[in-house]
Fold each of these.
Amino acid sequence: MKILVSAKRVSDPNARLQVAKDGKWIEGDVEYVMNYFCENAIECALQIAESQDGVETVAVGIGDEDTARFIRQGALARGIDRGIYVAAEESEIDSDLIARIYEGVVHRERPDIVLIGKQAVDGDSNQVGQLLAEYLGWPQATFASKVELQGDEAIVTREVDGGLEVIAVSLPCVITADLRLNEPRYASLAGIMKAKKKPLEELEIDDLDLDDADPKVKVVALSTPSGRKAGVLVKDVDELIAKLRGEARVV
Amino acid sequence: MSKILIVAEHDKGIVKKVSLSAVAFARQWAAKTGMSYDIAVLGQNVGPVAAALTAYGAGAIHVADHADLAHPLAPTWAKVLADLALDIGADVVVAAATTLGKDILPRVAVRLEAGMASDVIGIVQTKEGLGLRRPMWAGNLVGDVIITTDTKVLTVRAAAFDAAEATGGNSPIKAFAAQPDAAKSRTRFVSFDGVQSTRPDLAEAAVIVAGGRGLKDKFNAVTEPLADVLGAAIGASRAAVDDGFAPNDYQIGQTGKVVAPQLYFAIAISGAVQHLAGMKNSKVIVAINKNGDEPIFKVADYGLVADAFSAVPELTQKLKALRG
């Protein structure tokens, strides 16, 4: 069995972000982290590989040059077998193009499962796994909080509005990882040493035979939302009730 | 004439309010483009849902009633929605940004060779044409995006569009001969474990009482009585959900639900960026936390620095007394 897993770096959403002069992306001294949901996807792939024989795991990262470092440190050092880095200008690609790049990689690698973080916490689109599944004509199980393999099926518990849904999808399939799928492990020192020797293939978009490399969605302007002003501190419950009744008129 | 197709979500025969927010978006887009809008209802035995939607000014209500659409499985629903969009010549397909909309609409976009924008909060005029505003980086930035394809697919954040009111009229109901191709979907519904609650839905509640990890195993004991008095929905921070003090369905934040009630109580919630992204558009925010340095106080209209275990029961008792 082969599992393809996403390893995307994102600019830390908790850090101060500076909008570039052209207003279309961010710039400056940005701190990058591994996308949280990709960490869950990687952990899921590792757990499957540890639970049965003959599973190969391959991490895929798309983006600026530094992405290759994240594949090595964030995926290979944790135990993923090898990596594929596809070079792309992060401000010039949309979810659709990313999905088509993945499709190209899937055609080369022929995995049984593609495990992707449910969203990247920079673009926050939550589309790539679903787009990829449709491009491939594969079933999908999004927002997974539990994955069990039984024969040629994955039984997946999904976190949906109003509760938990369980669906069964037959392989090959796409699964997108939610936060409660697992507790991602840290890379061990031995893992970090081993990762230095693991294969990491570098590709260009042109290597993947896409029809075109044009995004369908373009960011025209980025801005900082108008902030909310801090209000007042009240000294006790009575004053709070008085404010809510008198000033805000909400209770 | 160009058309918008709105996907109506429903539960137990009732239209979800979030879908009326999608109607509100469609009305705004229609006003700027001269388009009209139709509504799609998919499912099994969905006649009452369609009937309830005829007073919202749609050109038509398209009903795809089929046993294989009983559960909203992405491949089958996406195929039928895309078939319908092509059949009626829709240029825009829109749904609320719920887990259903997020799951299914990207597949519709691929089928229609359309670009897609997620979680739209507004319509903006940009240098390059009519654009869509959406939160990015956990809501720390907003992006104005344009979809360059002729056909456009999008999900809208319900909290950003007040639910459309019925305007009268009588939209015709049209049956659509759905071909879900369930056999090709390789997807099987197994079970649904719904959260049993008599409280309002988080997305629709006027008041929300949300608790954080600090409440520990007293999460319910603190939040429920206050929610009872106010007729409120209960929410939680991600930390409270991760630690098992609240069910996943309660989670409010960037990766959970995004809400904008009239009144939001943040109890023992620190106010991490990812939580604020889910609630900072609430009309009035009250923060109760024993640590006055927490970031939640920077967005709260009223802050009370106090121990939640004593302050919330006191608040509950006094509000109860006031309401008789």
Note: The domain at 2-248 of chain A is CATH 3.40.50.620 (Rossmann fold).
Amino acid sequence: MMTGQNGMLEVVDLHAGYPRRKVIDGVTLPPLARGGVHALVGPNAAGKSTLMRALAGLQPASGSVRLDGEELLGLPLAAHAARVTYMPQTLPSGVGLNVLESVAGAVRASGKGQDPRTPEQRALGVLERAGILALALEGLDRLSGGQRQLVSLAQSLVREPRVLLLDEPISALDLQHQMRVMRLVRELARERGMIVLVVLHDLQIAARWADGIVMLSSGAVAATGTPAEAITPMTLARVYGVDARVERCSKGSLQIIVDDDLHTAVPRT
Amino acid sequence: MSEATRRHGAHVAGLDAEAVLGRYRALVRRRVVIVAGMALVGLAAFACDLVTGPSALTPVQVIAGLLSPESLTPPQRAIVFQVRLPYALMAVLVGAALSLAGAEMQTILDNPLASPFTLGVSSAASFGAALAIVLGIGIPGLPTDWIVPINAFVFAFGSVMLLQAMAARARGSGVETVVLLGIALVFAFNALVAFVQFLSSQEALQQLVFWSMGSLSRATWGNVGVMALVLLLVAPFSWLAAGRLTSLRLGEDRARSFGVDVGRLRFATLLRVSVLAATSVAFVGTIGFVGLVGPHIARLLIGEDHRFLLPASVCSGAVVMSLASVASKTLVPGVLMPVGIVTAIVGVPVFLLLVFRKPGRA
């Protein structure tokens, strides 16, 4: 494996989890390129969140995570956070902040960097880009689920990370908001040369929006590649335990049709 | 910018970033005005506190006496300068300290019902005081009237250190662990206090019970000075942590992903809280509800941007405590009740109001 590729996030032999139970056990990913959206998929408890948190430096991990040739593991949290931003699944409720404060707060939380703009100016730029400028002075608790998710995304984007890790950003959203979030993420990845790794449960969405797929199963990589390479009847059977077809629709996009559960006798967890 | 805006339809509401920024600046100005207004109310409450009391001094006499002490007779002068002024200053300082501590505590424990005493600080202080009062156990070489407060402080501060040490060893040292261990400490110290009470003489028992009630009557210029110094030393660090505390409201993982070392923030904040609470308890005993209600009043008025919330909490605590002090002197004419009783009586309805308040209000 080469070291020090520019514009790449390279994950080699990553281990993470609890002292007695490794959740992520020796994960090596193909280099993730800048400007790309990479979907992290896999069944529940496959270790997706643990992998994301390890990449974000929120959880102890061993192995190697290189960004533009620089080793991230072992960096101080603030330095790590300046490069990688992790967006958790949910935004807590009952928070007495308005949208603008919460987004500007993401900048204010740690060193403001060299950006001459105030945190509020930077926040407004991102809100405008996300199309939610009109919500800027609205209280977080008065937002709908879809709006909250866009605000949550804005809090991560305002830090202008080189790597953006999104943990199920669209699981609670309606179809229109799913599209809106995924489109925004892909546009920004292209514009800013950001590396986006996004946990998705909906394989259809993953196939449609992601440049590459990483399929995780029991803490190890089960398949990688383009959506068509990674999402196949074989991998779906092996990883998800379902009998499924993968077909192209009349417009050429991948469709996953699940016919049956391969383990009907065994209760699923 | 304009093209992206048009594409995403933000102009639908007729807003652009400049206009929003202008409205945000107006909001900030309004908050500054609110904090300044709260400080003025605090000043007024302090003045009320100064001019009320069981002795037959008119408000005009008190104010004139403050400006020119010669206008008062020596006994009157003693009342104003040795009783009224230190008591009233102590009320302001303790109220401010407990409310600031409460605001920080509620944020780091992510719990709106947390207060500086949640984790056993006051129970530990009571135990320290009990040891000093009943058994005469204290640090050797101290002036006798400082033994009780210093013992109380040492135990209060020690309990927080103990809590930290235990939380660091416990599995999954999350917020819940800290709260559970804190509750364990509350019960442990309460049991120890009861044990000491059981062993103590009638006289010492009475003294101990009075101590634990919380009263401003122990205020002297010496401990007012110490309290002021502690507040002045601690508050700037709270202010510097404001941005990190605000981000913690968005969740621990998120704050850490914004580069905030949450473990260190929590430790440093607990340290500040314990110094503020332990000093307060040491000088005036247990004063409930100010540390719980003060931050809530501030939050209702100003939201949770800690750059405003923390100063507002300082002010609201000072107001509540000064008014409680006034009430403690006027509820039963001619009797100076321990202020700790009054804050609880005034605090409980407010507390219930907050508990039953509809969720989702910012």
Note: The CA atoms of residues 70 and 77 of chain B lie 8 Å apart.
